[in-house]
């Protein structure tokens, strides 16, 4: 523990690097998962093939996936992010689909019957009703990205994983503990943050 | 005017028999019409064809003289009030936003929407200050359905479609909602099409009932005629044996009074009005020991007479 308190200046850069890696990956993952999830929620024929492909990717161990990617994209942040985005897809897409399909069909019928256009139904009814469920998915995905991101230090992605690897290589327990504790705090903090956001966006329980 | 169905057919691709089989009906403006029948008889399909949630396979439907296929769908729907079963309110919107849905689609100015919202909430006996900012889940089922009715009337449509609106509401609340709806309809003279499988509800609310069976209309008549002259055994069973006392509940003074001023009317008794039902009049006759009452108009001016004999004659028909 003492390393963490004695050298915050050495831990913090790793921390911020990890935060950046996590949120950049999350942002890219969302840009893919939100439209993809929405489309397959509407066109159910696509649902089974898409979710099984994502499921297969999700089951590949992260080390193995990174090893397989290195010949093509090399070492570094890009490869790390490709892996993180791929893993997050499964969680995010599944939640978007569940969110859209979990909307009571009566809601859609009421909206239609009152004269909303297709576009208005999407933006005034479906999206707001899906938000709480999607947020829960984002929370789980974020925590996953933080943890797999630690492993990504192995291929040169930086972040708190690097601190742990340094500790392992130099037999420096202080660095290992500092890295582990900080990563745990980051994960718990992110989880908490998204729970608060979820609360704000979920009117059913307000 | 009103709503006219001409040879309307709805054929779903996955069933052999049509869901709605060549129905022609004329509904007058301001009438309270109940579609009654067992599930699968086509009543909901018929209702939902009016606002084009389902399209007709053939035939035409006219609302206030306009063929519904000649109007843009969204525009048509914004002009027709629509109330569905429980859960019809949008849970992510406050009560006021729920009520404002159609006025906003119609791009009313916010000031007008604001005023209208208060007006509507008061109309359904919910205090605007208390309820405007609440969410649907903070209201009881009965209150939610009051908001549902207010929402459907928001843009003051001539026609209201109601699809088993009180189906999931407990008996006592349902009965007060029925009274409320009946009162509003008398007041606002909306044309209401109301789907139910509840016979008592139909008899209680309707000016005329459309009884449906296997996609066809088997009887289109007043509640009184349905009870006293069921068109077939199916309807006889549906409405069951209704006693004489109950029959009187479906009849009004206006159905039987005579315009003469007979002398036998006790001068001391208060008069009855045209819209009093015969059950009430009969009760008073028994309690007050009079065989006849004066019929008076809203200014308490005598316009005729109702006698015990006339009631008995009508019931014997």
UniProtKB/TrEMBL annotation, chain A:
Keywords: Membrane, Transmembrane, Transmembrane helix, Transport. Coiled coil: none annotated. GO terms for cellular component: plasma membrane. It is a multi-pass membrane protein. It comes from the Bacteria. It is found in: Cell membrane; Membrane. The chain crosses the membrane at residues 20-41, 53-74, 80-100, 144-164, 176-197. GO terms for biological process: glycine betaine transport; transmembrane transport. Residues 15-194 form the ABC transmembrane type-1 domain. Gene3D superfamilies: MetI-like (1.10.3720.10). Belongs to the binding-protein-dependent transport system permease family. This is ABC transporter permease. It comes from Cohnella endophytica. The lineage of its organism: Bacteria, Bacillati, Bacillota, Bacilli, Bacillales.
From TrEMBL, chain B:
GO terms for cellular component: plasma membrane. Its EC number is 7.6.2.9. Residues 3-239 form the ABC transporter domain. InterPro entries: AAA+_ATPase, ABC_transporter-like_ATP-bd, ABC_transporter-like_CS, CBS_dom_sf, Gly-betaine_transp_ATP-bd, P-loop_NTPase. One of its GO terms (biological process) is amino acid transport. PANTHER family: OSMOPROTECTANT IMPORT ATP-BINDING PROTEIN OSMV. This is Quaternary amine transport ATP-binding protein. It catalyses: a quaternary ammonium(out) + ATP + H2O = a quaternary ammonium(in) + ADP + phosphate + H(+). The complex is composed of two ATP-binding proteins (OpuCA), two transmembrane proteins (OpuCB and OpuCD) and a solute-binding protein (OpuCC). The complex is probably composed of two ATP-binding proteins, two transmembrane proteins and a solute-binding protein. It comes from Cohnella endophytica. One of its GO terms (molecular function) is ATP binding. Belongs to the ABC transporter superfamily. Keywords: ATP-binding, CBS domain, Cell inner membrane, Cell membrane, Membrane, Nucleotide-binding, Repeat, Transport. It is a peripheral membrane protein. It is found in: Cell inner membrane. The lineage of its organism: Bacteria, Bacillati, Bacillota, Bacilli, Bacillales.
